[in-house]
Structure of Fungal lipase-type domain-containing protein:
Amino acid sequence: MYAAETTQNFRWISQLVATYSPHTLTSADRLPPELELWIAEIGQFAEVAYCPFMDALFEHREELGRIAFPLEHYHMIHEVKLVASFKGAVANLPVSVVHCPKSCRLIVGISGTSRISQAIQDLRVLKTRHPTGRGYVHTGFWNLYQGIRAEAILAIKNGLRGHPEDGELVLTGHSMGGSIAYLLLLDLLTDDKSLLQTGLHIKIVVFGVPRAGDAGLVQYLRESMTSYRRQNGEASMKEYSVRGYNDGVPALPLLSFGYRHFAEEPIYTIDGRLYRIPSSESEHTLFHVVEDGDELDAPIFPRGGHNYYNRRELEVFVIRLIWIQKAEFPKAGWEERYMILYAKYSRHTLPDTWRSQQSTRDEHNVS
């Protein structure tokens, strides 16, 4: 598995700069199984957000959801309707907004870094004063957010107006996309309160998120979240910021640069299990975990890393998207071209149905 990795998992950064908390996580900190499952399902939208051709993805989701195709492990995509998809004005950052009729939920997914131009913004770690005057923000992340802000807010406004039955708004993203989701949340709670109907429940669900603001901005967001809960009920605002074992990204930018995490009580994941981190340990990114022996499962991804959240390998999805594009999807014959690429490059076994199709074609060619 790990020898075949082609994307960066930032384990080396974790080894260099991440700190272990003196606090040991135990079974008492474990999230309920139903909440773990729900977070993993929302995580599907954080991962699918990386797709640069969202409209076509939705149009062909049935074909793309078959075994060995990109959406094989993303069943939630079949339960939603695409409201909007666009790329930001800065570095073409992809954003998607979907409506889930079954749960009356609007979900905004923001892509993490997938292009060199976006990585350049990631590296712009000098701080910029936030327009509110309440702190400083990562310059590169702020640029990326400014590039999606207007369209994202308009899409949310249209989504809520078009589906007035929706009582929940979810913001999600992986890596840098999660940091952008936090900046969007801050705007929604302060600058653009008018588009949030009374009683709307808001949830932010992010994975492997780097620090994006200083202590002042972090405090401002936390105050804004507390104020929203006070006005709309304690359950109206929920935060799930998940950081994984051996993922170096949450350790960046460094504390010594003046950055802090937005999440007051983040979540730690190892081997697919989720644990609530005490607020006193919110800046640590590594933890020792002690569970009852009979509760431990065999390790799923024992080395951890940036692309191993929600019991899935994000790299598999991204690589399959690349093969789909190389196969000239959705032009005629794209499936056969994709099968050839899969057979040549995948470390997974060719599905039996594909073998039978290949045999049929070979027999036809011989005859």
About this structure: The CA atoms of residues 66 and 72 lie 5 Å apart. The first helix runs from residue 11 to 17. The chain has one domain: 7-312. The chain is about 35% helix and 15% strand.
